[in-house]
Automatic annotation (TrEMBL):
This is GPC5 protein. Keywords: Cell membrane, Glycoprotein, GPI-anchor, Heparan sulfate, Lipoprotein, Membrane, Proteoglycan, Signal. It is a lipid-anchor; GPI-anchor. The gene is Gpc5_0. It is found in: Cell membrane. GO terms for cellular component: cell surface; extracellular region; plasma membrane; side of membrane. GO terms for biological process: cell migration; positive regulation of canonical Wnt signaling pathway; regulation of protein localization to membrane. InterPro entries: Glypican, Glypican_CS.
Length: 368
């Protein structure tokens, strides 16, 4: 009553053993594909973590530099500016991770929060009553009177270019893991598991436990079993090319590190622009929001302080170099995996599974 290992000679197999063999080949095939995938998956997961750490490190330096700017040059508003600064960098971090937000909304929200502080602490430092209504009016007015000139828009443009590639790379790496996980659990068809039993275990039914499949026979069976997986070859090659493009984009004109390290300077230029146009801004704000309560003897707004270099240049350069090295190492490895899905049958038929350098092997019907 054998269904798979039918043979003219006497056999020591039963139908129940054939069923056990089918369960065994399914388990073995999943394990062998997992073993093949492990190195590739380990490499991608490792680089997701490494890139993330490098992004976080660069963001931290940029955030520290921006906080130092307020503490050094704009002390009257440093304490109140801490929260908007923190929110800005949290939004950027979430954007890189793929959150449903935009760089533009993050940057403009930051400048909306910054304007009431610049207006009440630097342009009109005598203002004492900064009610919620008045603050909200200043926030909304910012969008109409554009107190920060072209600097806020320039910052959006610079960051959008550089952060886009980082965001796409982050999403692409996660997609790679998803694809690999899916191939690990690709179900074997009934025909495939029967073919694998015939190749690996039917010789056992004849007592031939040391005979292994012929190489060509193994390749035919594996290619048939893994046809759906090897169909990924063209898309996988395209995926590797996309990763290469994104890592080059990050390293080229849309350089993430340069954009982040220049943030504090853009914010400083924006604040200086607002201060220099203080009288015109005050006249417009008074018409729109009314006049707030002020202290006697309004303090002068001419407290523009020249800004010292605030970035920790050396440490920032190290984080920059680290990210560049990770990019190069990663893309070099991924390029070597271009043929991963095209050669999966060959790799599974390598090693102990088949008979090499021997005069006898199993061809599915007999020993040849």
């Amino acid at each position: 009553d054998l269904q798979i290992c039918q043979h003219r000679a006497p056999t020591c197999c039963t139908k129940k053993m054939e069923e056990s063999y089918q369960a065994a080949v399914r388990r073995e095939r999943t394990q062998s594909i997992q073993a093949l995938n492990f190195e590739l998956k380990y490499m991608i997961v490792g680089h997701i973590t490494a890139f993330q750490e490098a992004f976080e490190s660069l963001l931290r330096f940029a955030e520290n530099g921006t906080s130092s700017l307020f503490e050094t040059a704009y002390r009257p508003m440093a304490k109140e500016a801490a929260e908007p600064v923190k929110e800005l960098f949290t939004d950027i971090s979430l954007y890189i991770l793929g959150a449903e937000t935009t760089v533009e909304s993050a940057v403009l929200r930051f400048f909306d929060s910054l304007f009431p502080l610049v207006y009440s602490r630097l342009i009109n430092p005598g203002i004492t009553d900064l009610s919620e209504d008045y603050t909200e009016c200043l926030r909304l007015t910012r969008q109409d009177i554009n107190p920060f000139g072209h600097y806020s828009k320039n910052m959006v443009t610079e960051l959008s270019k550089s952060l886009w590639a980082s965001r796409m790379l982050s999403q692409a790496l996660s997609l790679g893991i998803e694809v690999i996980n899916t191939t690990e659990h690709a179900a074997l068809t009934k025909e495939c598991s029967r073919a694998l039993v015939k190749m690996q275990y039917c010789p056992h039914c004849q007592g031939l436990t040391l005979i292994r499949p012929c190489v060509g026979y193994c390749l035919n069976v594996m290619r048939g079993c893994l046809a759906s997986v090897s169909e990924l070859d063209a898309q996988w090659r395209e995926y590797i090319s996309t990763l290469e493009y994104l890592t080059n984009e990050m390293a080229a004109s849309h350089d993430l590190e340069i954009a982040l390290s220049g943030m504090w300077n853009s914010i400083n230029e924006a604040i200086l622009h607002a201060q220099l146009n203080g009288p015109q801004l005050s006249a417009t704000v008074d018409k729109v929001c009314g006049q707030p309560r002020q202290q006697e003897g309004n303090l002068s707004s001419a407290n523009i302080v020249p800004v010292k270099e605030v970035t920790e240049a050396q440490t920032f350069a190290m984080a920059h170099a680290s990210l560049n090295n990770k990019r190069r190492e990663f893309i070099s490895y991924m390029k070597r995996s271009r043929t991963f899905y095209a050669s999966i049958a060959e790799r599974l038929c390598d090693g102990d599974l088949v008979m090499r350098d021997s005069s006898t092997c199993w061809n599915g019907e007999d020993v040849v």
